[in-house]
């Protein structure tokens, strides 16, 4: 399988995986899929409800199963959830089936972008900064290890982030038929 067939976005909550993923799919004429939306479609309930009923382990199982199915597709831009890299089998799937773009983000940016968020269960903590920092400690090395490309794009203007992303992807990612 040509790992260039798909583009997978990884990174913490609030990095902009969903937002940028949609734009990149449009730009490259590929299908956009958001892993969380896909899980919700299959379950018929929100991610928050899955966490409520089945806890994080239940959600991770569903996430992994859904990711495996998405990896069978070709020509997709997939925005993963921030915790998708936690399971080693998920990291292996991402690397084997797509070009992996990592969007880093600072905890300050996360706090500001997600200030009003009520949909992300892991963020509903009394001390959000502490929670996000603890998550970053565990996850940053996993993002780094899985990434084919790390996008340095601190701008809060999504249009600028998009420009940088396309520039870097055009140099590094050989899409589908264009692959040598
Ligand atoms: N580069 C950016 N600058 C400013 N706000 C952004 C940027 N990228 C995303 N956002 C905003 O941050 C929030 C979270 O973005 P989202 O794409 O859902 O992130 P993720 O899928 O990585 O959790 C949204 O309100 C989105 O509009
Ligand atoms: O970081 C995480 O563990 C999660 C991130 C969320 O997706 P986003 O990264 O798109 O916010 C979603 O999958 C769920 O709330 C868990
Ligand atoms: Mg998202």
Please describe the topology of this protein:
Elements: E1 7-10, H1 17-28, E2 31-34, H2 35-43, H3 47-70, E3 76-79, H4 88-97, E4 99-102, H5 107-113, H6 128-146, E5 149-150, H7 158-172
Shikimate-3-phosphate (S3P) binds at residues 13, 17-18, 36, 47, 81-83, 120-122.
Characterise this structure.
This protein has 180 residues and is an alpha/beta fold. It has a single domain (3-178), classed as 3-Layer(aba) Sandwich (Rossmann fold), CATH 3.40.50. It has helices spanning 17-28, 35-43, 47-70, 88-97, 107-113, 128-146, 158-172, and strands at 7-10, 31-34, 76-79, 99-102, 149-150. The protein has a 5-stranded parallel sheet with strand order 2-3-1-4-5, with helices on both faces. Helix 1 (17-28) packs across helix 7, helix 2 (35-43) crosses helix 3 and helix 5 (107-113) packs across helix 6. The longest helix has 24 residues, at 47-70. The two termini are 13 Å apart.
């Amino acid at each position: 399988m040509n790992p260039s067939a798909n583009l997978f976005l990884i990174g913490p909550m609030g990095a902009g995986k969903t937002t940028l993923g949609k734009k990149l799919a449009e730009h490259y004429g590929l299908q956009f899929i958001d892993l969380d939306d896909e899980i919700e479609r299959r379950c018929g309930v929100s991610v928050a409800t899955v966490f409520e009923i089945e806890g994080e382990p239940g959600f991770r199982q569903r996430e992994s199963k859904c990711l495996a199915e998405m990896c069978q597709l070709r020509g997709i831009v997939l925005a993963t959830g921030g915790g998708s890299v936690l399971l080693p089998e998920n990291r292996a799937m991402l690397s084997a089936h797509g070009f992996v773009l990592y969007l880093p983000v600072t905890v300050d940016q996360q706090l500001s972008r997600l200030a009003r968020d009520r949909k992300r269960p892991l963020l509903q903590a009394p001390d959000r900064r502490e929670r996000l920092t603890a998550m970053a400690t565990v996850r940053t090395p996993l993002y780094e290890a899985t990434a084919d490309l790390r996008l340095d794009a601190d701008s809060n203007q999504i249009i600028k982030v998009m420009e940088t992303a396309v520039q870097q992807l055009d140099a590094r990612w050989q899409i589908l038929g264009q692959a040598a």
